[in-house]
Specification:
- A hairpin with a 2-residue loop joins strand 20 and strand 21.
- The protein is an alpha+beta fold.
- The N and C termini lie far apart (54 Å).
- It has 3 domains: 244 residues, Beta-galactosidase, Chain A, domain 5, CATH 2.70.98; 242 residues, Alpha-Beta Barrel (TIM Barrel), CATH 3.20.20.70; 96 residues, Immunoglobulin-like.
- 22% of the residues lie in helices and 30% in strands.
- Strands 4, 5, 6, 7, 10, 11, 13, 14, 18 and 19 form a 10-stranded antiparallel β-sheet that branches. Strands 30-28-24-23-22-32-31 form a 7-stranded parallel β-sheet.
């Protein structure tokens, strides 16, 4: 075992009563988190066991920090958190290392970022191999073996967000990095280390190229390291950088407690806000940008006339530039006069008049050759507002795409002003930011040999500053985080944005079911497309906390008017049904069937609101499934309480105890494919019909 942090995992057994929900931390979890924090942050420890590491001037931080001066500060942040700052100062070079951590009174969690600042008068020695997380776990010899639970990232396939479980036997090694610099491309930056009836959830907040390793020794130890994949740089005088954000969350009992504590923690502390209130993930209707303004306005009128409860009218790509293809006009952000002679304001005004909000697609970080941004910054269109700034674009030889350089503060401030004006001028309520480019090669090509990692750091810091300033200036704005479909989902983006197009993979029911199944372990809010009007199986396969209805739009091309035979009544009732169940997606998540892409099985899941003692079950019978019934053991219910069940499609109502439902809720569907939605709530003492408090 190397000289890193050790947490002892011993084998034990604990039984949870039926009324204990995974969303509520228990005393053992809070105690473990407190003990861990005291070992790293407590003032009683003169030499804390720090959960991060780096190499400086060729020496390990494990040795260096013992010699440096240490200052501690602790302050209360709101009612439920404490902020702890441990600052180490190198008297020889002027480097300061600040470990800034948050502990929680209501969650068994610790969260931190490490900052490095050169307060000396000359460049520092090389700072490298910075690991924002470097710690070891150990289990008793008789305890169960470690299992690492994580997920596939977005790869534009039916495998997106698929759960992965990897046993970590003696000398096993797992190395994980995303693809191309987007944080949830190929692999998700969330992990659950299961040590048998207890474990730790780890989340990384870094919207770039992170890396994580899980290395077992030959005995009972596991070393975990995470941070940027590549750091090898000197800092100039006065220069400061930060690391990825790390969250540790301790759990005991069943593994799903860890996942549900993470979901609950994200909703409590990493949830976007709208007008000062926690965001409720929206219901949208998708529309292609190259559709003429008048078609949009007429369709908005029909939506209003038929009282469809759609919340955001979504305009996607190709509304800008001078014509197809849409991807080659990215960087020219004036409305295409062929489709929108009066700009986008005519559409946003119509949406607002109809009681909807307006959502517009943009992709400011990618700049295609020959577009307005390319010509303005690379030369040929100098003006008072757009001077030549070749340093504002990161380019690669032979690549027709450039990367707008958010690492440059002047460029980032200019883009912030530009986008803020666009939001105001076009009446945008949801700013949809796509990112169809892998930035890693651009970042690394811009770095000198003794500054490797600096462009990525500055770029990611710039991205956060860009989004934060837009949200500050427009407090009723929400940001949709797309990135080729779900490739930028991490702990930092979840608090600023929502992935309303979580995958560019297949738009079919089984793929959508699998995406929902996998992503709900880690992210409470997301959305995908629901495409077939009148098809409840299709709708419930794509149903999540949010929706993107594409009922009269198919593919990347202009749409026509809503067809005269469109089933408005079905659409209205279905959307109202979703509005009724949407709050359950903020509850505990329980998969009720195994993950499978097969077309002959059932897939089902449950969402339970412990605070309301109610929830829902979604059951989906796939097309070649020959079994018309399934028994689904429900989770999180009070064993002795009575629950009223409503089978939404048939109107049937039943009453059962929590114990009976834990043994199995029987769902029957005569046809395949088919779907069932069951809503349940604890039976109240008062007489008369009960109403859901979230309905």
């Amino acid at each position: 075992m190397r000289g890193a942090i050790t947490v002892l995992f011993v084998s034990f057994s604990i039984l949870f009563a039926g009324e204990v929900s995974a969303m509520t931390p228990n005393k053992q979890e809070m105690k473990e988190a407190s003990q861990w924090s005291q070992g790293r942050l407590g003032a009683a420890r003169r030499k804390p066991d720090l959960p991060f590491s780096f190499t400086y001037g060729g020496r390990s931080s494990r040795d260096l920090l013992k010699e440096w001066r240490l200052e501690r500060k602790t302050r209360r942040v709101g009612k439920t958190r404490k902020q702890h700052a441990l600052t180490y100062s190198d008297p020889a070079t002027g480097l300061k290392v600040r470990f800034e951590a948050l502990t929680y009174d209501d969650y068994p969690a610790v969260e931190w970022v490490v900052h490095f600042k050169n307060e000396g008068k000359k460049d520092t020695p090389i700072l490298e191999s910075i690991r924002a997380l470097d710690m070891s776990l150990s289990r008793a010899g008789s305890a169960e073996e470690f299992i690492l639970h994580h997920a596939v990232g977005a790869v534009a396939s039916d495998d997106d967000f698929a759960p992965v479980a990897e046993p970590l036997g003696p000398n096993a090694s797992v190395q994980l990095t995303p693809g191309g610099g987007r944080s949830s491309s190929q692999v998700m930056p969330f992990f659950n280390v299961d040590a048998g009836r207890r474990g730790i959830v780890i989340a990384i907040g870094w919207t770039g190229q992170w890396a994580a390793s899980f290395q077992r020794d030959g005995q009972t130890g596991l070393n975990i390291r995470a941070g940027m994949e590549l750091t090898h740089l000197k800092l100039h005088p006065g220069e400061q950088i930060r690391t990825p954000r790390i969250l540790l969350l301790f759990w005991k009992g069943d593994r799903m407690r860890g996942h549900n504590l993470l979901r609950s923690h994200i909703l409590a502390y990493h949830r976007p806000r709208l007008g000062g209130k926690p965001l409720e993930s929206p219901v949208t209707t998708g529309n292609w940008g190259a559709t003429p303004t008048q078609v949009h306005v007429d369709n908005i009128r029909k939506i209003a006339e038929h009282k469809l409860p759609l919340e955001y009218y979504w305009i996607d790509a190709e509304w800008y530039g001078e014509g197809p293809p849409w991807w080659a006009n990215v960087g020219s952000w004036s409305p295409n006069p062929r489709f929108h002679p009066k700009g986008m304001r005519a559409i946003s005004d119509a949406a607002h008049a109809a009681g909807m909000k307006f959502m517009l697609w943009l992709e400011p970080e990618r700049v295609f050759k020959g577009t307005q941004f390319w010509r303005a910054f690379a030369g040929g269109e100098a003006s008072a507002r757009r001077r030549e700034h070749p340093e504002w674009l990161l380019k690669l030889e032979g690549n027709d795409n450039a990367l707008f350089n958010l690492a440059n503060p002047e460029a980032r401030r200019w883009l912030t002003d530009f986008m803020s004006e666009k939001i105001s001028d076009e009446g945008i309520d949801c700013y949809r930011q796509d990112f169809n480019i892998e930035p890693l090669e651009f970042w690394r090509a811009a770095d000198a040999p003794d500054r490797q990692g600096i462009t990525e750091i500055r770029y990611i810091e710039g991205l956060y500053a860009f989004w934060d300033e837009l949200l500050r200036r427009h407090p009723r704005l929400i940001i949709d985080n797309c990135a080729s479909g779900g490739r930028r989902i991490d702990l930092e983006t979840t608090g600023r944005s929502v992935p309303l197009w979580r995958s560019d993979g297949p738009r079919d029911p089984i793929a959508h079911q699998c995406h929902t199944y996998g992503l709900l372990f880690w992210a409470p809010f997301s959305a995908t497309s629901v495409d077939e009007p009148g098809d409840m199986y299709n709708f419930r396969s794509g149903m999540c906390s949010s929706l993107c209805t594409n009922w009269w739009v198919h593919g990347d091309g202009p749409a026509g008017p809503i067809p005269p035979d469109f089933p408005y009544d079905w659409a209205r009732e279905t959307l109202l049904q979703h509005r009724r169940i949407r709050p359950y997606y903020s509850g505990d998540y329980y998969p009720l069937t195994p993950y499978s892409k097969a077309d002959d099985v059932w897939m089902a899941y449950q969402l339970h609101r412990q605070d309301l003692d109610e929830g829902m079950v979604v059951a989906l019978r796939r097309p070649k499934n020959g079994n018309p019934a399934i028994s689904l053991p429900l989770k999180g219910l009070r064993a002795n309480a009575k629950y009223e069940l409503e089978f939404v499609d048939t109107g049937e109502k039943r009453t059962a105890t929590g114990k009976q439902l834990a043994e199995g809720l029987t769902v029957e569907l005569r046809e395949a494919p088919g779907s069932a939605l069951v809503i349940y709530r604890k039976k109240r003492a008062a007489a008369g019909p009960s109403r859901s408090r979230v309905g």
